[in-house]
Amino acid sequence: MSAPWLLDELTHAGPEHLDEEFVANFDRKQGFPDPGDDIEALRRHGVETTGTVLDLGAGTGRFTFAAAAVFRRVIAVDISPAMVRALSRRAEEGEFDGVDVVRAGFLSYGHEGGAPDAIHTRHALHQLPDFWKTIALRRMAELLRPGGVLRVRDLVYDFAPAEADTVFADWLAGASDDAHLGYTAEDYAEHIRTEHSTYRWLFEPMLDAAGFEIAEAHYEGRLFGTYTCVRR
Ligand SMILES: C[S@@+](CC[C@H](N)C(=O)[O-])C[C@H]1O[C@@H](n2cnc3c(N)ncnc32)[C@H](O)[C@@H]1O
User: Fold this and answer.
1) Which of 12, 206, 10 is nearest to 127 (CA)?
2) Which residue positions in the chain have pLDDT lower than 70?
3) Which of 47, 161, 167, 215 has the smallest number of CB atoms closer than 10 Å to its CB?
4) 155 pocket-lining for ligand 1 (C-beta < 6 Å)
5) 59: Cβ below 6 Å to ligand 1?
6) What does the DSSP assignment read for 45-99?
7) 35 lines ligand 1 (CB under 6 A)
């Protein structure tokens, strides 16, 4: 995409994701999430081991490198130069032949080669305001082959506006005390204040408008939504 009104994805990437020190501790802070369910969901929805999978907003590559052990080709895409350096280092150290690392964003990634079979994106789409989420989702649908699978997990609000105080109070009460080992109440407050998580009742029509059929949806704690979608 190139237009004078195009969003600057780097300024919306979250300043912490551009910070080498934050990136170096990122897996620990996140608690080393297990991408097993995501890989299993792609396989369950027909993504073959010979397939190509894009990981958009790949971060340090928790999903990328686990997926590389299963699928023929995985393309890890991230807008942050610090994340891309971490991904490239890990790809080289692990000698992952089937992994390509690309510095680009949801709105700027240009795919080369045959249409991917699947797209995975975790905890990244909320960096974009809602209008731009719809453009990003539409681009994902256009990238995928018909029948291709989107696995998206994000902070998505599964409640009504009147419940925001209660849900957020509970969320902050359960936060970590140690910023190195988890997300603190201040981290969560900053997320609510400055990032663009949307409501479930807005997000699901966005997926539909972009050209996706929701095959599975699962929520944790009214705050984290995971969707497996099929491109119509
Ligand atoms: C919270 S991290 C999640 C990383 C990884 N998906 C994971 O779950 O471990 C969000 C990632 O999205 C990246 N990001 C933010 N905005 C982006 C954009 N517009 N396009 C691509 N990546 C983006 C950040 O640089 C960061 O690596």
Assistant:
1) 12
2) 1-2
3) 161
4) no
5) yes
6) TT--TT-EEEEET-TT-HHHHHHHTTSSEEEEEES-HHHHHHHHHHHHHTT-TTE
7) no
pLDDT in tens, 85-113: 999 999 999 888 899 999 999 999 999 99
Q: Which numbered atom of ligand 1 lies nearest the CA of 82? A: 25
Q: Is the CB of 191 under 6 A from ligand 1?
A: no
Strand partners, 214: 229
Q: Which two tokens stand for residue 51?
A: 């397939």
pLDDT confidence of residue 97? 84
Among 6, 20, 78, 137, residue to substitute to test ligand 1 (most atoms within 8 Å of Cβ): 78
How does pLDDT run across 22-44, given as a tens digit for each residue? 999 999 999 999 999 999 999 99
Best probe residue, ligand 1, of 27, 83, 102 (max atoms within 8 Å of C-beta): 83
What is the structure's pLDDT at 124? 98
**Cβ(13) to ligand 1 under 6 A?**
yes
- pTM of the predicted structure, to 2 decimals: 0.97
Q: What is the pLDDT of residue 168?
A: 98
Cα 134 from Cα 22, distance rounded (Å): 29
